[in-house]
Amino acid sequence: MRNLIRADLYRIFKGKGVYISIAVFILFMVTIVWANGTGTVGVDVYVFQNPDYDIEAYAHELEMLAETKMTGKMAPGMLADGTSDLIYFILPFIVIIAAADFSKGTAKNLISAGESRLKYFMSKLILTGIVCVSIVGIYLLLSILISTIMNGFGGSFDMEFVTETAKIYLPQLFLIFAYSCIGLLVTFTLKTTASLISIYVAFSLVPTILIMILQDVNEKLIDLIQYDLVFNMKTFAYPDGAFPPDLTRTLLLGFGCILICTISGFLLFRKAEIK
User: Fold this and answer.
1) What are the φ/ψ torsions at residue 51 (nearest 5 degrees)?
2) 3-state secondary structure of 249
């Protein structure tokens, strides 16, 4: 399996896709830091976290936030809401790591040569995990670094800062990895890049949008949002919101998603015909 990972790393860094993805990601980071952390992708979680919000008060809060100069120490907290956007930057790496093997016939060649399907599957899972850790780590480091260059660090870099940052980003990282396992499940089941992209993106948006619609039918259905992976990532940015972060729920959701996706993904791949 070590040789498979080494071969994948050589193939990944030999191509242009990884460098383009990294360049786009860095541009994204510079943009959101420049905008004081107010530019994020997806459904605004503020409405869920503050169901009785006043639109004028909300607009005033956004205006005040826009005038706030984000320091390096403030950056992790102010940009925590945007961490869920990282699932979109992990998608190209899932394509490069796993989906490309099926479109190019690499997977068939390796399996035909006697490579273990379990080792092959696990190598992709481990590489995807490495990507998740790297993307979240770069997101955090760049946000602090760029903000510090622009406005200074704004305090002391102490253990309290590290601990509070870890409380936010470690659970988010866990959920991001869980979400990436959905991408691997789709890849090893349908084996096409188009299916991976469409289902992966849809799964990040459709549940939240559907729950927003259902709450008009029955307000109690809004509680379903607590079991959405993307929404749970965002809750760690709003510790005082209507739906505060719940570490137990996060761990259960994450482990459940990882186990279901990895086990079912491998079982389907083990029995599938590789073309």
Assistant:
1) -60, -25
2) helix
Q: For the whole prediction, is pTM greater than 0.85?
A: yes
DSSP 3-state of 74: coil
- Report the amino acid identity of residue 142: L
Residues 6+ apart with CB under 8 A from 143: 29, 32, 33, 37, 75, 76, 79
Gap between the Cα atoms of 256 and 93, Å rounded: 23
* Each residue's pLDDT tens digit, 174-212: 999 999 999 999 999 999 999 999 999 999 999 888 988
**Two tokens at 187?**
């890849």
CA 191 to centroid of chain Cα atoms: 21
Rounded Cα distance, 127 and 97, in Å:
7
Using the Cα atoms of residue 87, residue 90, residue 91 and residue 97 in order, give the sign of their dihedral.
negative
